[in-house]
Write a structure and sequence with these properties.
It catalyses: 2,5-diamino-6-hydroxy-4-(5-phosphoribosylamino)-pyrimidine + H2O = 2,5,6-triamino-4-hydroxypyrimidine + D-ribose 5-phosphate; 5-amino-6-(5-phospho-D-ribosylamino)uracil + H2O = 5,6-diaminouracil + D-ribose 5-phosphate. Pfam families: NADAR. There is one protein chain. The protein is of the alpha+beta class. It has a domain at about 115-275: YbiA-like (Tetracycline Repressor, domain 2), CATH 1.10.357. About 30% of the residues lie in helices and about 10% in strands. The chain has helices spanning about 35-45, 100-110, 150-165, 170-175, 180-185, 195-215, 215-225, 265-275, and strands at about 5, 15, 70-75, 115-120, 130, 140-145, 145-150, 230-235. Strand 6 and strand 7 form a beta hairpin.
């Protein structure tokens, strides 16, 4: 399968991004079709790779490749995984689509959604807000009940610690200098129960995402401008919060072929619906 050279006319981005760039992290683009094995090897070659899988811990290990523009699929018969206008389609109700199974059923019934893939938290090279803002690691402080969280990852790890009665770890998580440090502290939580975590994790991320995007006008505008697009965390390394596939994998456009649940993408869609009122 061949790729048409990438263009920039489909990039959804607004406004300049403040603050320094985060080196070595970006949105997965691609250099042509890759197998899952090659996608993983490419990710492992990036600075900061630590390996390991989720194993009950939220969001898995995010190690991202350098940022490149999305590719356009040619003659695949599928909607390409990029930012594009989503046609009106009464068979797909984004406000009611919260699981891969629901989305798969909608597509099987004739829905033709557009997908917006993201992975990593590096700003656009032109200084505008792009898909990287959808990452849990995107630097955008917000407050909930008077407590400040530097990133959505800080919020999630603090929430995880509170859920399992590890209040003593919360101040350390809040003071973590990076989302990676916050995540590592979250792994120190004791008394972890998988069933209880599964019960609460989705709403926890939705609440944090609603605060993150709701308290920053430019982030709010960006999220709402994604319209009815299906938000897809195209991480080939994460089968819980992502789809277990890279953005340049043909299957990223077909929820029936996803290798993961895309919980982060659906949580962001729920936050978008709440902010839209």
């Amino acid at each position: 399968m061949r790729f048409v050279p990438p263009t920039t006319d489909h990039v959804l981005a607004i406004g300049p991004v403040p603050g320094p760039r985060s080196p070595g992290r970006g949105v997965v683009g691609g250099h042509g079709p890759l197998s899952r094995r090659r996608s993983r090897k490419r990710a492992m070659a990036q600075p900061g790779w630590q390996g390991s899988s989720d194993r009950g811990h939220p969001l898995g290990d995010r190690r991202v490749a350098r940022q490149e523009p999305a590719r356009k699929w040619q003659a695949t018969g599928l909607e390409r995984c990029e930012d594009g206008a989503m046609p009106t389609n009464p068979t797909l109700r984004p406000g009611e689509t919260r699981t891969r199974e629901q989305l798969t059923a909608a597509v099987a019934s004739g829905a033709r959604p557009k997908y917006l893939c993201f992975w990593g938290h590096r700003p656009q090279r032109d200084g505008q807000i792009g898909p990287g803002a959808l990452s849990q690691w995107w630097p955008s402080p917000f407050t909930v009940d008077g407590v400040r969280y530097d990133t959505a990852e800080h919020w999630m790890m603090a929430g995880k610690a509170r859920l399992f009665g590890n209040e003593e770890i919360v101040p350390r998580i809040l003071g973590a200098r990076t989302p990676a440090e916050a995540k590592n502290l979250g792994r120190l939580v004791t008394g972890f129960d998988e069933d209880r975590w599964v019960e609460h994790r989705f709403e926890l991320v939705v609440t944090g995402s609603t605060a993150k995007f709701g308290q920053d006008e430019r982030l709010r505008t960006y999220l709402l401008r994604t319209g009815e697009r299906v938000l897809v965390e195209a991480s080939p390394l994460d089968r819980i919060w992502g789809i277990g596939l890279a953005a340049d994998d043909q299957r990223a456009n077909s929820p029936a072929q996803w290798q993961g649940s895309n919980l982060l993408g659906f949580a962001l869609m729920e936050a978008r619906a709440r902010l839209a009122g």
